[in-house]
Each structure stands twice: as C-alpha cells, then as structure tokens.
Design brief:
Blueprint: E1 2-4, E2 7-12, H1 20-35, E3 43-46, H2 48-57, H3 61-69, H4 75-91, H5 96-109, E4 116-122, E5 138-142, H6 145-157, H7 162-170, E6 180-186, E7 192-197, E8 208-215, H8 219-222, E9 229-234, E10 240-244, E11 250-255, E12 258-263, H9 276-293, E13 297-304, E14 307-315, E15 336-338, H10 352-371, E16 383-388, E17 391-396, H11 400-408, H12 410-422, H13 424-444, H14 453-475, H15 478-497, H16 515-531, H17 534-542, H18 545-553, H19 562-579, H20 598-609, H21 615-636, H22 639-664, H23 670-686, H24 701-713, H25 721-735, E18 742-743, E19 750-751, E20 754-755, E21 771-773, E22 775-778, E23 781-788, E24 803-806, H26 814-817, E25 822-825, H27 833-840, E26 845-847, H28 852-855, E27 861-865, E28 870-873
Parallel strand pairs: 23-24, 24-25, 25-26
Antiparallel strand pairs: 1-2, 2-3, 3-6, 4-5, 4-6, 7-8, 7-13, 8-9, 9-10, 11-12, 13-14, 15-17, 15-18, 16-17, 19-20, 21-28, 22-26, 23-27, 27-28
Amino acid sequence: MSSIQGTPFILKLDSPEATLELVGGKGASLARMAAAGLPVPPGFHITTHAYRRFVSGNELGDAILTAAAQADDDPATLERAAAQIQSLIVQGTIPEDVSVLIAQSYNEVGLGDPPVAVRSSATAEDLPEMSFAGQMETYLNVCGGVNVLDAVKRCWGSLWTARALSYRAQHGVRAEDVSIAVVVQRLVPADVAGILFTANPLTGARDQMMINAAWGLGEAIVGGQVTPDTIVVAKQTGAIASQDISPKEVMTVRVPGGTHEEPVPAEKRKRAALPPEQAAGLARLGVEIEQLYGRPMDIEWAMCQQRIFILQARPITALPEPRATLEWKLPSPGKQYARSSVIELLPNPLLPLFATLALPVWNKELQAMMQSFGSNNPLSNSFRLVTVNEYAYTEFGLSAWQSARMVVGLPTLLPKVVRLLRSARARWANEARPHYANLVATWARRDLGVTPSTELLTGAREIVKAAAIHYVTIQTGILPVSTLSEAAFTYIYNRLIKRKGEPRALTFILGFDSAPIKAEKSLYDLARWASSQPELADYLARAASEHIVRAFASQPPPIADAESWREFAARFAQHLEGFGHAVYDLDFASSVPADDPGPLLETLKYFLSGRARSPYERQAGAALARKQATESILARLKGLRLRILRFLVQTAQRYAPLREDALADVGLGWPQLRRMLREVGRLMVVAGAIAQPDDVFWLTGEEVDAAARALDAGLPVEKYAHIVTARRATQEVERKVTPPVALPVKGGLRLLGIDISRWLPARTGQRAGDVIKGVGASPGRVVGVARVIHGPDEFDQMQPGDILIAKITTPAWTALFALAAGVVTDVGGPLSHSSIVAREYHIPAVLGTGVGTERIRSGQRITVDGDGGTVRIVD
C-alpha cells in the first residue's frame, strides 16, 4: 500500500484493504478473487482517495456538484452537464503525490511499457440490487506511463457521463454520494473471451451454467457487436448440455494505442470459439467463484494460449426461479383464454416488439369495434389479445351476468350485427384496405435514412393500426359471413337438397380466383417463361435457393445469357411486388416473401421441372364443375327451397374468394414496416446498442422508444446485447412446448355454462398413440411421407408428394400446397386458410390436431383421412 497521511492512493490488487468505499464494486470483486488465488491478471487499484485528491487539488468539487444539479430528465441538460464536468476533469492536473505512485505501480506490472486495461470502478457499481454495468468506461491496450495517466483521468470523467447521471437519478443515488476508483491490470491478449453465468439466467436452473464466447477480446460481446456462441454446461460434471454456434462476423483486436473491430477470418466464423475441454475448465472456475461469493455470479473471462483469466465478477441480477416446465398462469384470474381468432396467424411465441407495440394497438381497434354496438353493451371491454408464456391468446371476460345480459339484449343487438355483416364487403374494399394501402405508399416514398428514429416508430404504429383496422374489419364482416354462409349452405344442401350421386357441397364453392391462387399462377407463369431460356433454366434447376436469392439481391449468376437473367430478375421482382407481402406469420418480426423470397424458389423449381399440374387447368376444372353443379341443382328446385338455396349458394360463392383476398392483405404494410424498424435497428447497431438490425425485434416497444429518443438527441444508447441473448434463449424453451388450446387448463372454456373447448381449432389434450384426431377439412385419403415444416426457412425440405405437417398455414404457405399430397396442422378448422386452399388443390387435410408437429416426425409414413378427420402414423 502507498499512502500519504493514512489515505491510500494505491493498493495492491489482492489487498485486504480493498473495500467497496476505496476501490469500488469492480475493484472490490477483483481483490476478493485475487486474494482467493483465482487467475486474475496482475495489477493495482487507484483508490477513491486518489480521485478526491485530484478533485480537491484542482478545486473542482463545487463546480461538479453545481453542474450535476442543473441536469434533469431532459437529455439536453444531461448532455450539457456531462460535457461541462468532463471538460473540467480532462483539463485538470493529477497531483504529483498521486501521479508518481501510479507510475511506480505501473512499472511493477511488467517490464518496459506493458499493455494494460484501465477500468473504472464506481462505488455504486456491481451491487446485488442494482447493476451499473456499462455505465463507466474501460480503456484497453494502454501502453506507457503518460497514456495510463490520461486513461485514468478519462475513467474519472466517466463517472459524470449523461448516461451515468441519468441512471443514478432514476435510482435515487445522490451526486455527492458517489466516487470512483480505477483498476489497472495487465491486458490479456485474448484469443477467445466472453461471459459465464454460474446459473442459467433464462430458466433459473442452478445446476446449469451458461457460457457466451466469441473470438478476440470481450468488448465485441459486451458492446453488442457480435452474437456469441451460447453453451449450456452441467455444473457438476462440466458436460455440455447444449451448444448454439453463432456466425461471428467481427472481433475486437489490439492495435497500437487501443483496440479495433475487424472481420473474423472466414474459416473461424462458424467454428466454436471455446472447445469442450476449456468450457469444462471454465465451469470449474465458475463453481469456485460462486462458492466464494455464496450466490450465482455473472463473470467476464478471457483465454490466451489455452489459459483462462477472470476479468470481472458481479452478482446475477433478476435471476428467475428455477422451472422445469412452463406454467400457464392466467393473466387475470377468473377470465378465460383461447387460441382462436387472429391467433391462427400467430402460431409461435411472439417476439417482444410485436407483443408490446402491436398488441396494444390491435386491442384498441378491437375495443372500438365492440363499442360500435353501444358503449353499454356486454361485449364492450370483454375481449382482448394477451400473451401467456409469449404465446398469444384471446381473453374472454364475459361473466355469467354479462352473458345473460347479452342474451336478453339480442333483439337490440341483432339488427346492428346484421347491418355490420351486410356492409362487410364495402367497409373492407372502400375504406379499410384503401386507407391501409395509401398509408403504406406514403411511407414507401419517404427517405428512411434521413427520418428521425422517433418518426419511424410513429409511422410503424400508424401502419400497425391500419393493419389492425383492416383485420378487425374483415373479422367483423367478411370472415363471419364467409363462415356462416358456407356452413348454412352445406347444412341445407346435405340435409334437404342433395340426392344420391349429386356432387359434394364443396363442389359449389371451388374454382375461384383468390389472391393465393393468383400468386401461384404468377409463379407458374414465371417458371414456364424461364423454361424457354435454356441456360437460365439450367441454372435455376441446379443452383441452391440461397444462391439464387443472393444473385437476385446483388450478385448476378455466372451465366453467359445475362439478358435472360435480367429479365427473370425483373419478372420475379414484379411477382414480389404483387404478392410478397403475404405473411408466413403475422408477427412482423418474421420475414415475408418480399424480403426473403428463398422459400418460393422451391415451388418455382418444381414448376420448372414440368412435373406439376398447371394451376390454370386445375382451377378451370373446378370452376366448370362448380358451374355445372350450380346450374343443375337450381334448375330442379322451385319455390321457397329455390330462393333459400340460391341466396345461400350465391353468398357462399361471393365470399369464399373474398375471404382469402382479405386475409392475404393483412400483411400489406409488413415489408415497409420491417424496413422502418430495421432502420431504427441499424442506427442502434451503429450506436453499439445491439449486434444486428433484426435484434430490434427482440426489444420491447418501451425500450425501442427510449433508444429512438436517445438516437435523435445524440445521446448514448443503452446496451441490450445481454437482454437480446437472454430473450432468444428463453424463446427457444417456449417454442418446444405445445400451448393449451384453452385456459384455464382444467375446466375448459365455458360460455353460458357450456364447455366450448371441443369446438376450438386444436386438440392439445388427446391421448398419445398412433392415431391423432382433428377436423376433416378437405376430403380424401392419402398415404405418404410426413414432412414437418416449422417455418419458411425449412421450405426447402419439402419434396413433391410429401404430406405437409405445420402448426398453421397462412397465405404465404400456399407455395407448398403445389408440392403437397396432404396437409396436417396443429391449429385450424373447416374454414381456415389451410382448409380452403387444400380443397382448391384437391388434397386431403386434417386440421386442428393440436399435437401434429409434436408427435409426427419428418420421414414417417402416415395416413391422412380428410373425411374422418384422423391421422394415423404407419411407421
């Protein structure tokens, strides 16, 4: 220890005097580990006394507190105060009694001018109840005594950044109560670095550890410039339980005077950064550190020449309680929840941005529609969309009393409902869709690169609102009219009209030209044209879809007939312009064909092979059968039966294609919306807040709003790399479960005392076995090979003649129906998209199995009985 009059300015790294008050949170933690013999790089502490000596020696105390007191919640005042205080510190002179001791201690770290890391350590940092991680500064690869002194002053100045001032104010930490120390340590020239959590921060499991690892120094991980590998290790054995190897594009390396981000060599990008034996060794160190502190810890580490060093350790904040399985707790006790309505378009756990930005907007429009029947009607404020374990549910809030009131009020309510249904087509075609399309067009003309981030988010909410109005409009008109008219026609026809030998009721509503069928014909036309260009056709048949997408985006393929490629690219772009907004998943975090056209290319290749039936011929055949059946049946009826059946069949025929047209346009604004949100994400990447633009979808609306305000004000942005990594892993757990069709799990979904769960489009509670029950939604029977497809990134696994197994299908999935011999889904009913399109393709479909994707494996032979509504696993 070096001191003057009992005030230590310098302490050895493992000094027993290295308390929180003297060396700050980071320093105290390093001292504790160094004293315990853990592999901490050698170094020393510059204590809070040295900082106070600097402040008093330059007479800065009153000026600092006065400037800090002038800062409030306004970013401009925070930035002004920070700049004023940091200027005072940078211009100050370190007193000689302090600077001499720093120089002497630096010389003891190593011979010559050893490279060191100079780290800030605040007295309010790394406490169990708060995490100030990232608030203070760290300077790496500092060489030479003069540069070390300069880095120390900059660390002292980092106590007063705008971000630190704001954070302390939010947590009630007074300016006069904080001080700062500095830790100087020999720099570890890391080959690999990362973070170790001694408990699983996602599941709370205390018997697991999670390791993040990437090439180079650890700053690329901490700063969010790279998505690291994630390794889950069993704490007792060190065995790897799971491993997710990420493509690591950049790494932090040493350069003269500091550090620099550079591309990772191509051969290392997809390689595991940390071998299993080193992961086990790191886990053993983690156990020692956890035992030293007596609680789960968040540890920064680095590895150089196979030797591991510990750089920092702090308690894990907000560690969840351990859970073996997901609990399906009700958001509001006493209410009921169902995976129905728009949830058919949301099969997976919602990403945070959609859940917190889109759902509130959707609910507002849903409530506005309900209140259009009168603010006092029982339906007002009775329905909303919520999430349970990130899965979307419709909440039903009707009490027994409200249900009774609704029944009593039906005479008043019914005329309003009828008027709403009659106006369905006009409201969608003349109001909702034009407004939606015009808004999207307006934003498409904007230069996003010069638009403030806050405006981009305002525009994003406007587009979501237009999409919600569009969907609620078809939900309160086109969808129920389509459903009721087909159901009524089928019932009347089968019970009162149909004679032996006459066609199925289904024949009367097939063969129409809906948006998904138009998209299929457009792709078919493109394939037929391409087949007339020999060199182009050969390239499209041979090349992998990802290579074709890359060529389409920026790198023309290596073929001599460049003109045919240019023409193909233009035609493909035109196809995407017309149909590229169809959603695979309504969550706007999921790509659409417009920005990920790869899944379409498998169907294009199938059409190009010449083995596929022409969609024109198929549709013409269905249309002719429909026309003949309609004319024949109407010709033999008279009187009331004729009038009733004509009304029902004409209504069903009018709304059958309209339903698909309307659903296909729900994502009309999604390509533009995704560009806007990814532009905000791009700016956050530049600011070091996240690793890649798409990480913005893993943040909440509130977090993105805060980031946008900071970006527009030129302030530092909160770093979210850890949060994004944690949320990704949490959702991996959630994706593996099958959400119950109704909540509460016991008791079912009851309306007026009747359990209606059995009629919902999924059957998650059925017993295990070779037979899976569902809804027979398209007639016929087929035996074939199952192909489980979870999303568009797996479309290339689908082979002609396979039976498609999916959670749901939306209009964008139609491309697979040309290849499929049958369809099985977890969610859906007789009038869902899967049913309607399967019937157009004349392939059997069993929907609403609830467990199809869980129990059926790709490659198994199965029998799909679309008449009986069953799926049998053959082998």
